[in-house]
Amino acid sequence: MRVNLLKGPLGDVETPLLAVAVFADEGARGDDFAQLDGLVGGRLSALADEEGFKAEPGKVLLVHEAGGKARRCLLVGAGKRGDLAASELRKLVATAADEANARKLGSFAFAVPGGLDAGEAVRFGATGAILGGYRYMRWQTRDLEPATVEEVTLVVDADAKALSGVVARVEAACGGVMLARDLVNGPPAEVTPRRLAAEAEAIAKESGLELTVYDEKQIVEMGMNLFDAVAKGSAEPARLIHLTYRPDGATEATPGVALVGKGITFDAGGYNIKPTGAMEDMKIDMAGAAAVLGAMSAVAAWKPGYVVHGFVPTCENLVSSTAYKPGDVYKARNGKTVEIMNTDAEGRLILADTLTFASEQPGVQRIVDLATLTGACMIALGPHTAGLMGNDDAFRDKVGAAAERAGEDVWALPLPKKLKAQLKSPIADMKNIGERWGGALTAGIFLSEFVGEATWAHLDIAGPASADKPEPSVARGGTGFGVLTLLELLDGEV
Predict the structure, then answer these.
(1) For the purposes of burial, counting CB atoms within 10 Å of the CB of 341, is it exposed (0-12), middle (13-18) or buried (19 or more)?
(2) E strands along 291-424, which residues?
(3) What's residue 485's pLDDT?
(4) CATH 3.40.718.10 fits 2-158, yes or no
(5) How many other C-beta atoms are found inside a 10 Å radius of the C-beta of residue 9?
(6) How far is CA 150 from CA 103, 107, 133, 473, in A?
């Protein structure tokens, strides 16, 4: 989708549909509404009153008389004017995009309300327009409802030319989100570890990133026995993907950040097999990997001033004669031994070896991992919010602030020292799972044992990685959650 910026009177905007935010404040529906209402002699407000339009968030009213050069006017409820934040424009513009697509229109315009930071308003508005048009239709052969909108114009009360750089970054970021959504939505027979490696090759070629892909034999040679234990139950070979972005002039001494994403492309649970009802959507267990690949596809456009590593450990977790078993003990890359008490706690195992490897890279001082790790986190926080943990409060809060700027919901959780006792094993250094209570926290505590001296944050995205119901700018299925948070984090000093 092309995003254009335009400064000018609303009456001069030539478009098949002009959307305006309308506010619920008594007697003051907004300047944009008033401007259009004046063009049609007050008939817009009369129609809104006749229809009982209350301007509540999510409510719309289409009027086939817009005044000026627009053929239609779409009133988009925005609630009270004082409650409007720039981040809300993502939903408002996505709602307008849905209405334009429903009418098979090729373009629409949206009047950005005044009083907001222009750059932030354009960022969220453009994001809503692009992601609002996302559809996953790879396997549909009938009842197709493809998006028809190819162009959106954001009407702003600011220097449009000066904001063009914001649009370019948004386009790159949304491309990363849509890549992540496609990967999560794809069937597990197609989205395999080798497919993720192929996507990494395409990203490296297009963005000029460095790429190393380690195969199943090299993973063993590197001492990643926890990773290998999970992978060896499947005939599909494991891969460890390592993408690297280096700014101009970077050396081994240049500070670096590592992003690590869990890439279980299908999780049957191993010998602790998942029951019916819990396995059907386990193609999403690589959503952390998808988020890292999506962020790495956009990082060159965002141009951070330090080295960025993207690591994706990826394999399947199946049941077979070669699969690992409860009671087995394996030595991790960092030398610690782990007793397997549950083969369905596999994500932390592949992450553990990869976190160790990431912490060993020259210059890496910060690590962020993303994983659909525990159902316990969903029980605690629900389906829309990721759990955020880490070994440094300041860095954890910096990740949380990046998520807030990105418009993605996270909530900080503790790593209580008392719970570490749950991971004690009578025959090894630790077990891979604790008791039922605090399961998301003990998973985080387990991971913290493998980050070396690095400052580390962990995002458990089990809830928001996939949506059961569509929302404005978020289609049903994979959400691409985490891509925007990672890019916001990289857009500053970390």
Answers:
(1) middle
(2) 307-317, 329-331, 337-339, 364-371, 386-390, 410-412
(3) 98
(4) no
(5) 10
(6) 13, 6, 9, 15
CA distances from 79 to 22, 23, 24, 25 (A): 8, 5, 5, 8
The predicted pLDDT at position 27 comes to 65
Q: Angle at which helices 439-448 and 347-359 pack, to 10 degrees?
A: 30
Q: Which residues of the chain carry a pLDDT beneath 50?
A: none
Dihedral in degrees, nearest 10, Cα atoms 218, 323, 371, 474:
110
Strands 2-6 and 239-245: unpaired
Look at the pTM and tell me if it is higher than 0.90: yes
Q: For the segment 55-103, what is each residue's pLDDT rounded down to a tens digit?
A: 998 899 999 877 789 999 999 999 999 899 999 999 999 999 999 999 9
Contact 265, 184 (CB under 8 A): no
Tokens standing for 307?
């080295």
Domains in the chain: boundaries:
2-158, 173-490
326-330-332 Cα angle (round to 5): 135
DSSP-assigned beta bridge partners for residue 259: 310, 368
* Residue-wise burial string across 207-235, b where 16 or more C-beta atoms lie within 10 A, e elsewhere: bebebebbebeebbebbbbbbbbbbbbbe
Rounded-to-integer distance, Cα 340 and Cα 421, Å? 16
How many Cβ atoms sit within 10 Å of the Cβ of residue 266?
Answer: 21
Q: Of residues 348, 366, 396, 431, which has the active-site annotation?
A: 348
Q: What is the CA radius of gyration of the chain?
A: 24
Instruction: Please tell me what DSSP assigns to residue 421.
Output: G
- 479 to 24, 182, 293, 476: CA distances (angstroms): 30, 9, 14, 8
User: Which residue's structure tokens are 């009369």?
Assistant: 46
One of 59, 274, 331, 420 is an active-site residue; which one?
274
Reading the block at residue 487, the tokens are: 């890019």
pLDDT > 70: what percent of the chain?
Answer: 100
Which amino acid is present at 34? A
Q: Nearest Cα to 122, choosing from 11, 206, 247, 6? A: 6
Q: Which fold has domain 173-490?
A: Aminopeptidase (3.40.630)
80 labelled catalytic: no
Task: Compute the C-alpha angle 159/165/167, nearest 5°.
Answer: 90
> The tokens 């301007």 sit on which residue?
55
To the query of whether residue 54 is one of the catalytic residues in this protein, the response is no
Angle at 50 between CA 75 and CA 73, to 5 degrees: 25
Q: How many residues does the chain have?
A: 494
The neighbour count for residue 80, using CB atoms within 10 Å, is 13
Q: Give whole-number Cα distances, 379 to 244, 313, 440, 480, in Å.
A: 35, 26, 9, 21
Over residues 236-267, the pLDDT tens digits come to: 999 999 999 999 998 888 899 999 999 999 99
The per-residue pLDDT for range 6-38, each reduced to its tens digit, is: 998 999 999 999 999 999 986 678 889 999 999
